[in-house]
Specification:
heterodimer; A: 101 residues; mainly alpha; B: alpha/beta; Amidase signature (AS) enzymes; eleven-stranded mixed beta sheet; 13% strand
Chain lengths: 101, 463
């Protein structure tokens, strides 16, 4: 049986860009452990020479003409309408670089 | 209006003969919503003004000659609706108002429908009962101690509560069929690639489908014909025609692996009766075997969280929506599960393995259709009738197992029509599903109509 430990959960939370509270950690650890154990049943299936399926349409490279259709374009105002955190008509984001000291 | 029409035909005949106006229809639905919505928690947003504007416009023209003229529709709150709040059932999008509408919404509105608003659902469509909505659970109008099925919980309940004539849902693993089944409704999970998902908040992109819920096969077919086909925005969609064969003699396969311990005895009995009805109508039955489908739910709960972790990565609180700490518990669980099965050291054992077992399930299903010359597979929609609110909320795995009969159609990308077929001893709805070959929706509609005609099916509402 696959058992997840607290370290595993902290790791996947980090990969997921999520911060867990202690209560959440207590709740999620056994739940995720149980689910991972269940899906582990696939280890018993023989898939030798079986190709993986990532989609079922059989389509490849669906392209369209590279032209501007004005009715399909959001105005700057519309594009920014989902947030109040704007500056000079741009999205405002947190700095990712620090000043050199 | 006291007696709201229950089908598109009744609606349009009434409008054309001036038995009632479109405005009176809106009055009727809104009075039903005002009376029951607080208790049952079905609508999250009601677009009253928009509905009256459209109804007045329709009354003024007075023709009602579009496929959905005068049809009152409500959308699962995962479909973007321009200028109408869209939450995906999640607090992270509590105040999000989209700048554009989903293709499906546009097509339904262009076909003359009146939009009443947005329906409750499990947050980001993660759930089988509706209880994972960040806005509280929806209650089943047939009995409010029971769940209405999810994740399109409001989409089922709005129809059994008579709050709209049709609704839309999304089905990634049963989320259209379950609520239809638990509310005595007809629904279609279309072939993957038949209906555009543009403007529908993505859950698991290789499995997500969009489809209609209504009260008759005819109405589901009408809505499907309106929403299907290429739109230039969803590269998976093709205009392949549903094969409308002149065939009138059908053969149905019954997968023996689906009728095992754990399947409720009332459902077994009900499906046995449905089989007898169809046999009497000249449909031939054959037992088939799909040994790998028992792994379907495991495959699904690897591939789906993997794709969820990627799709929900876009919620960064910058362009729209709140911060990631606003995700509810189930979204967090699935994102983390997805990150886990995709992470270094586990990718091959879980994600890659699941994609291969998925291939195995698909080839078994294809072989069964081809080898037996069958037109459909008959299966339960869920292992039990609706369960009680709260029964499974603390045990995510037992909730996941509700989807055990739904997974096959999603993993294979094949269509499935869910049909109501009776009531349990506790007076809760029962039904079954017919899965077909890719793009064989019209064959499923034909068999569904044969069955409903034979049992003299009549649409029913609970409230």
């Amino acid at each position: 049986m696959t058992k997840l430990n607290k370290k595993d959960v902290i790791h996947v939370a980090k990969l997921s860009n999520l911060v867990l509270s202690d209560t959440e950690m207590k709740k999620f650890l056994p739940q995720l452990s149980k689910i991972v154990d269940f899906i582990g049943q696939l280890s018993e299936v023989n898939v030798k020479d079986v190709e993986p399926t990532s989609q079922t349409t059989g389509l490849t490279n669906v392209l369209r003409e590279d032209k501007i259709i004005s009715e399909n374009i959001l105005t700057q105002e519309q594009a920014l309408s989902g947030t109040d955190n704007t500056f000079n008509g741009l999205f405002k984001v947190s700095a990712i670089l620090e000043n050199r000291t | 209006m006291n007696d709201l029409p229950l089908t598109i035909k009744e609606t349009q005949e009434g409008l054309k003969s001036k038995a009632f106006s479109a405005v009176e229809l809106v009055d009727g639905y809104l009075s039903q919503i005002n009376k029951y919505n607080k208790e049952y928690n079905i609508f999250l947003t009601i677009s009253e003004e928009k509905a009256y504007t459209k109804a007045k416009e329709l009354d003024k023209i007075g023709k009602f000659d579009e496929p959905l003229s005068g049809v009152a529709v409500a959308y699962k709150d995962i479909f973007l609706t321009k200028s109408v709040r869209t939450t995906a059932g999640s607090k992270i999008l509590e105040s999000y108002v989209p700048a554009y509408s989903a293709t499906c919404v546009k097509r339904i509105e262009n076909a003359g429908a009146i939009s009443l608003g947005k329906l409750n659902c499990d947050a980001f469509a993660h759930g089988s009962s509706g209880e994972n909505s960040d806005y509280g659970p929806t209650l089943n109008p047939w009995n409010k101690n029971y769940i209405p099925g999810g994740s399109s919980s409001g989409s089922g309940a709005t129809l059994s509560a008579n709050m709209s004539l049709i609704s839309t849902g999304t089905d990634t693993c049963g989320s259209i069929r379950l609520p239809a089944n638990y509310n005595y409704l007809v629904s279609l999970k279309p072939t993957y690639g038949a209906v555009s998902r543009y403007g529908v908040i993505a859950m698991a992109s290789s499995i997500d489908t969009v489809g209609p819920i209504a009260r008759t096969v005819e109405d589901v077919q009408t809505v499907f014909d309106v929403i299907k086909g290429e739109d230039g925005f969803d590269g998976t969609v093709t205009n392949k025609k549903s094969k409308d064969m002149t065939k009138s003699k059908f053969k149905i396969g019954i997968p023996k692996e689906f009728f095992v311990d754990g399947l409720d005895s009332e459902i077994v009995k009900n499906i046995e009766q449905a089989r007898k009805v169809l046999e009497k109508e000249g449909v031939e039955f054959v037992e088939v075997s799909l040994p790998s489908t028992k792994y379907g739910i495991s495959v699904y709960y690897i591939i789906q969280p993997a794709e969820v972790s990627s799709n929900l990565g876009r919620f960064d609180g910058i362009r729209y929506g709140g911060n990631r700490d606003k995700f509810g518990e189930e979204a967090k669980r699935r994102i983390m599960l997805g990150s886990y099965v995709l992470s270094a050291g586990f990718y091959d054992a879980y994600y890659n393995k699941a994609m291969r077992v998925r291939s195995k399930i698909i080839s078994e299903v294809d072989d069964v259709f081809a080898g037996n010359g069958i037109d459909a597979l008959l299966a339960p929609v869920a292992p039990t009738p609706p369960f009680k609110l709260g029964d499974k909320v603390d045990d995510p795995l037992s909730m996941y197992l509700t989807d055990v009969y739904a997974a096959t159609a999603n993993l294979c990308g094949i269509p499935s029509l869910a049909l109501p077929s009776g009531f349990s001893k506790n007076k809760l709805p029962l039904g079954f599903q017919l899965m077909g070959k890719r793009f064989s929706e019209n064959t499923l509609f034909k068999i569904g109509k044969i069955y409903h005609k034979a049992i003299d099916y009549k649409p029913k509402v609970a409230l």
